[in-house]
Hints:
With 321 residues, this protein is mainly alpha-helical. Helix content is 79%, strand content 2%.
Amino acid sequence: MDIVTQPAAVAPGLPARRIDAAGRAHVDQRAVLALALPLMANSAVQIVLNLTDMWFIGHISTKALAAVGAVQWLVLVVVLVLGGVVAAVQTVVAQSQGARRYKRAAQAAWTALWGTLCAVPLFVAAGASSHIILAPFGFDPEIERLASAFWCPRVAGASFGAAVWAMLGFFNGIGRPRMTLLVSGVTAATNVAFNQLFIFSLGWGIAGSGWATTVAQALGLLLALTIFLGADYRARYKSHLTWKPHAGRLGEQVRLGFPMGLLPAADLLGYSIFQMMQVRLGTVGGAATQMVMILTSVAYMPGFGIALAGTTLVGQSIGAG
């Protein structure tokens, strides 16, 4: 959904801006809600996705749930660090949208995809290094084995998740959060189906959960690219013409996005260390703590939707001048 805007003589094109009968400018709350509510719903989808994963893994064994709990936050740290170029997409796109530089908005998405492609070998290397990464933490051998089985497919294929993050940043930045919600919803639904298929039907166990997420994210990326290259976006954003890599643009987005990714990565690293300590203290305690931390996300995840809406509105306002 596009952000509702009304032109003003002082600064035309400012997002979520309403002029009353007396000529005074106000924040258009309806426009803000039109942007924020789908993003809050998208956060709810992420909560459901996390709970679904834990439900499937919990049906494997308590040790499996504890093993995933030991590394799940660390997986996100890897994604945020190696996929830092993606963190800048929504900001760059929102500013380009506000400045009506629509081709530049599409170029920012393509630039992030190229950056993610360059990082694929690093994702694969990190995924293949599970025993080296986990050995210093002194887990029970069975916990370490299960954690490694989940880690490898999840991290090695995390570039798909980073690429989806880039595309969702584009849709958020241009003020079309319903596309974000659609892609996330389809990804979550397919993740459920693949969890059932890989974990139980094919008997892959805990590794099947990692593969399910990777394949679901790959399909989510395919859907996002299909929308991105559709007639609407081709006409306005020239999304089919801005795909060529540009080293200068890539460097700019890395310099902007990498520090942006480090801040949440530092927070999640703290979560990760805490959870690892719980798993070392005991399998049951580690599994229980993992479930509590996932359930706690119900309290704060919707706030991310509001924060993303704010990022878009601020970026578009800066771009509009």
